[in-house]
Amino acid sequence: MARKGTSTGDGKRHTTIREVAERAGVSVATVSRILSGTYPAAPATRAKVMRAVEELDYVANHHARALQGTTRKSIAIIVNSVISPHYAHVAQGVQTQAAEDARLCQIGTTGGDAERELAMVQFMREQHPEAVILVGNVNADDEYRARMSRYAHALAAIGSRLVLCGRPPLGPDAPAVVVEYDNTGGAFAATGHLLSNGHRRILYLGRRPGYTTADARIEGYRGALAAYGVPHDPGLEADGTFERFEGYRMMQERLAAGAPDFTAVFAANDQIAAGARQALLERGLTVPGDVSLVGFDDLPPAADIDLTTVYQPHEELGRTAVRLALEHARNGGPPPHTVLGAHLVIRGSVRPVVPA
Amino acid sequence: MARKGTSTGDGKRHTTIREVAERAGVSVATVSRILSGTYPAAPATRAKVMRAVEELDYVANHHARALQGTTRKSIAIIVNSVISPHYAHVAQGVQTQAAEDARLCQIGTTGGDAERELAMVQFMREQHPEAVILVGNVNADDEYRARMSRYAHALAAIGSRLVLCGRPPLGPDAPAVVVEYDNTGGAFAATGHLLSNGHRRILYLGRRPGYTTADARIEGYRGALAAYGVPHDPGLEADGTFERFEGYRMMQERLAAGAPDFTAVFAANDQIAAGARQALLERGLTVPGDVSLVGFDDLPPAADIDLTTVYQPHEELGRTAVRLALEHARNGGPPPHTVLGAHLVIRGSVRPVVPA
């Protein structure tokens, strides 16, 4: 639909008061009087003008122009999916900080598909965000590193920047801001809590070799076993992704093999813990009566199932990503890199083992 | 940063092979040979070219151009927040359907603020999405209707369309696609289930007069009471928003007044139900031993707390929004309007009342 109008210096097009007047069949002075609201006008004339304003979107443009100076700058965040509580809470933190800094925040999702991620980065790049934040667990292979390096350079070329959130740094050749949290430390604390309570056979649910988050957490699990002098049994590590139905599947398969050969479970996240708990309850086993259980995240449903877990600062992760990106935009220099802490939250899902 | 390049017909700028050659200090033919991957090249030359390609973002542009025909079209969805499981699941449905229809999906959040919503609609409109989907509970006052009408006209003016998802229609003057679900029918079924189990004193948590979703649900609650011939007691309706901490607060306040004067609770959503359950447990009351509990949504943590609730098709709502929008884009005509159903999911949180 072709419409005439003025083109402003920033390349955006705004409907003019003259167009409104033409469409309503009244003078420019009449439109001006009615829009200013300070003069009386016949209801019929007023209705004609307001209708023309709506049809030509004058008010919206006008309103948006008023907002432009403060909020038209933007921050983009790209996640696999927003139904994962972890991604959703990080995105919430990004939104909150962006709002405080008078930036719009837009979220892109990829469904975990690299092609869609590339298309999304390109799409968002065209809107010149100050930063594009990529979140989460990845298989950090060579292809991944090459892709991230391309993003980093492509964004730097337009004065924007890549932020990796909950992902490891890329090395000196790729200019990316990095905000991580302490997966290994948190997993060490969770496993240590079970060991301190006398557990020696601790099932690990959610091994996924090659994936950064999964690898960092299992490293914490193994590190705690070593620190407590408990022999590492690879037979106690079950492979699976970080979803509830996977937790259910892993525990079901384990229980199908016979009575539990473990007294406690460390689930790589709360979703896995919730699924595993359901499988235990369905077999008539109780938590923590028969099996102690610890998760990772402290996100729903952790509190509702009284789960001892590791708190990680999801929203703070998103907020920090925005803060560091804007700081880097102002000051330049080498992109900042920071690691946030994680700590244990004690609830009722762990029972001490009484020595025989 | 000023860079030369070709401008394509669609207004986008692409780096050329000539620029890559200049930057790498080799011939165009050499770049072409190396990028095609079909001819051998000296490692040092190859490294120079790949470095220039990365710096100039040639690969990303090239790759994106290949994708453009299928995925550069987009759908936008705007929600208050992505940490509400309801919004997150609707957004997931939009993303899934958009991907199946080869569209990119971008999500904007507003924090429930009308100014940010306006800025977000304007921002997304500049990217010419085929549809802008607005989701969720609103206070449907005159200001709201005027704002939606402006959005609808502003989007129609660029050949896009407004989609209202889980919101009532605006009337004939505002061209919006509408996808609703049956809040009143679902609430009637939930309350009817408690009444069928002999409950007569049913506490309603989450009244919020003026808000469309809250009003539709309490209408179902009152309708079921009337259908069963149970007198309506306004003292059994508690005011609050749809969040977990609000459910906790409402139940805590109720219990602070003395022993429960109700045998069952209908919470306006599962988040409220989870918060209310926590307050009950902290007072030493059990569900369903002392108090029966029904929610609305069938989203986490419903299954984990064994909650009887109303299933509503969140992801299908998002998928339908995309389908109807694209159908309307193809066929024109009056914007479609549809209502999806909701049904009861029976779990273990309701106990029959034995007549005295």
TrEMBL record, chains A, B:
This is LacI family DNA-binding transcriptional regulator. The keyword Membrane does not apply. The keyword Membrane does not apply. InterPro entries: Cro/C1-type_HTH (IPR001387), HTH_LacI (IPR000843), LacI/GalR-like_sensor (IPR046335), Lambda_DNA-bd_dom_sf (IPR010982), Peripla_BP_I (IPR028082). Residues 16-59 form the HTH cro/C1-type domain. PANTHER family: LACI-RELATED TRANSCRIPTIONAL REPRESSOR, LACTOSE OPERON REPRESSOR. It comes from Glycomyces albidus. Transmembrane segments: none annotated. One of its GO terms (molecular function) is transcription cis-regulatory region binding. Keywords: DNA-binding, Transcription, Transcription regulation. It comes from the Bacteria. Residues 15-69 form the HTH lacI-type domain.
